[in-house]
Design a protein that fits this description.
CATH topology of the largest domain: YefM-like fold
Strand order of the largest sheet: 1-2-3
Helix content: 25-40%
Shape: elongated
Number of helices: 4
Largest sheet: 3 strands, mixed
Number of domains: 2
Structural class: alpha+beta
Length: 86
C-alpha cells in the first residue's frame, strides 16, 4: 500500500519525502489535499522513458530541397509557401 501524506506535510518536510521516494522502488508517496489524491512522488525508475520527438520534413519540402538550387534567403519564403495554412 502506498504511503499517503498531506500537501501540508510535504511543504514542511519536502527534502525528507523526496529522498524517501527516491530510495524506494516499491511504492509511490501519494500527496493529498482535502483528502483527495493530487500528486505522487515516485522513484524515476518507475516512470516511463521519455522519447525525444521525431521531426519529419514535409514531403513537399523534401522534394523541393532535392530539386532547388541553393540560394540563401529564399528557403524560408519557399517553406512558408509550401506550408500554406498548416
Amino acid at each position: 500500500m502506498p504511503h499517503t501524506i498531506t500537501i501540508e506535510e510535504l511543504h514542511a518536510q519536502t527534502g525528507e519525502y523526496v529522498r524517501r521516494a527516491g530510495g524506494s522502488l516499491l511504492a509511490p508517496i501519494i500527496i493529498t489535499e482535502c483528502g483527495k489524491p493530487v500528486a505522487a512522488l515516485v522513484h524515476t525508475a518507475l516512470l516511463p522513458p521519455i522519447r525525444p520527438r521525431k521531426r519529419v520534413l514535409l514531403p513537399e519540402y523534401e522534394r523541393y530541397l532535392m530539386n532547388a538550387p541553393v540560394e540563401t534567403g529564399f528557403i524560408q519564403e519557399s517553406l512558408d509557401e509550401i506550408r500554406g495554412d498548416r
